Amino acid sequence: MKIHGTTKGGALSHKDFGVAFGGAPPVSEEIYNFTAGTTVGTTNENIRGIGNKFQTGQDVIGQTVTKMSMWLKNLSGGTLTMGVYDATSLTRVFTFGTVTTTTSDFVEYTKENLDGHVLEVDQIIGFDVSGVYTVSHQRYNTGVGADPNVEAAYWATSSGPEWQVAGDHQDNNMILWGYA
User: How much is the pTM?
Assistant: First the structure.
């Protein structure tokens, strides 16, 4: 490898420096895809967030997640923030982006943050809402075919507030991209 420089030994550009010392971050690839759900779930004044809790044994644990998609129908406006959450509190530890569009049909919302987040055991990927009480999402509701290391979760204000586990085999439709 040849590093180009000036007479003072400095790099000619950031591009030259980046190539010489590691370059661009890895390319994100699809690392999780669960879209089999056809059951409609809806948030309300008590349920303020929806997501999937990733547990020990799920392949996504330890990978850097950079982008997510969920199929949502935002019926009454407001703001949805898509991110990664600490399972024991309402703390959002990483934000992919926000959605403010109102739709009457399900739309795949995709948000990306190239900084990425290394997913840890029991973290939740999903969304929280503000200024809106009715957001529909698509999820699985059958005992066969869902990932046993992923549990649907919801953020309930009446019992904490805190994230609650909806149970196995109710995984929310979601696609994740990232890298190891």
Answer: 0.79
